[in-house]
Specification:
Layout: E1 3-12, H1 15-25, E2 29-33, E3 37-41, E4 49-54, E5 63-67, H2 70-79, E6 84-90, E7 95-101, E8 107-113
Parallel strand pairs: 1-4, 5-8
Antiparallel strand pairs: 1-5, 2-3, 3-4, 6-7, 7-8
């Protein structure tokens, strides 16, 4: 499996205030804002990212990992018996993803961009 990037996800009751903190204070740019989650990106290095998830969103993954072939990783997770918390889904914002719980119960968002999900290993 090729991991392309890992993004920490912060759960916040102050998601709106976080935008000012990460953009105006730290100089990141809004890479995506879906209302329930916003991702902030370094303009100098786009692989440097952090996401803020609204506290009322559920489930709340602690980390997001972009992989080269999300379908293959999903099948491997199922074969290994890892708990699938959110099924493999094509999201309207262009990612294909699923949530899986690691052995300690931490929810991990495994994703690939829809157009590249099965082409890069």
């Amino acid at each position: 499996m090729s991991v392309k990037r890992i993004v920490p996800n912060i759960v916040s009751t102050q998601a709106d205030l976080c935008q000012d903190f990460y953009t105006r204070f730290l100089g990141l740019q809004v890479g995506m804002d879906q209302g329930w989650i916003a991702t902030y990106v370094s303009p100098a290095n786009p692989s440097v990212q952090i996401s803020v998830i609204r506290e009322d969103a559920s489930p709340q993954p602690a980390v997001s990992m972009e992989v080269g072939d999300v379908d293959r990783v999903y099948l491997d997770a199922v074969a290994r018996g890892y708990p699938i918390v959110y099924p493999l889904t094509d999201e309207p914002w262009g990612v294909r993803r699923f949530f899986v719980a690691d052995p300690s119960g931490v929810v991990v968002n495994i994703l690939g961009h829809a157009q590249a999900s099965a082409t890069d290993t």
